[in-house]
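Justification of computing resources. Each target in the renewal requires a structure prediction run like the one illustrated here; the chain below, 242 residues long, is used simply to show the kind of job we budget for.
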Amino acid sequence: MTEANKISVIIPCVDEEENLKELIPYLLKFGGDLLSEIIVVDGGSTDNSISLAISLGVRVMHSPVRNRATQLNLGAHHANGSVFYFVHADTRPVMEFAQVILANISNGKQVGCFRYRFDTESRLLKVNSWFTRFNGILSGGGDQSLFIKKTFFDSLEGFDDSYCIMEDFELVRRIRQKSDFHVLPDEMTVSARKYKENSWVKVQLANFAALSLFLLKVKPSRIKSLYLNFLNKRIKSITLVE
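Resulting structure tokens:
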């Protein structure tokens, strides 16, 4: 049964033990009674992500494939809240995230995201994060998190799980065809680990290539293959899903 005016937080996960160790208690503390549940959807972790999540008292689901769109859809399918909040494991929402989301839902905003800043003093990344305040073609990426009414998400039939990359932008593109999309002024915190493991230039080139190919409607598996070619071997180990 759907819990009215409560949020289901859905976190896709692959080997995120260290991040979940911080994120789950954070969400529980600041979400409080406004949360229906937290659902961690695992895509085949080999660390202690699953046992850690279970020990912290949240729901854990096992995805048959390692594909973020599939994992997010699986979590949403089993979620009980009237609002879904999709969150990456290496992000930290604003402390008032639950109150802010529900207040905006009550005011008629059925879908949106937050601005963000990186957990670093890098001037280049401060420039990057400054652009997240704009509601344009770059808005709605997964690092900004996404809140959406369950009924609206269901009407869209969820994420397109043929997208092994850019699934968030693909969903937002369909959202804009049916509704206004909102970028809230509150700033969440995003890990800069991808930039630390690579370089600012490499990540920018990878992001630019992925977005350009997405707009050109190139096959998602091809986009991901090219995207990973810009980045290091650790990230390349992610399984590609056709």
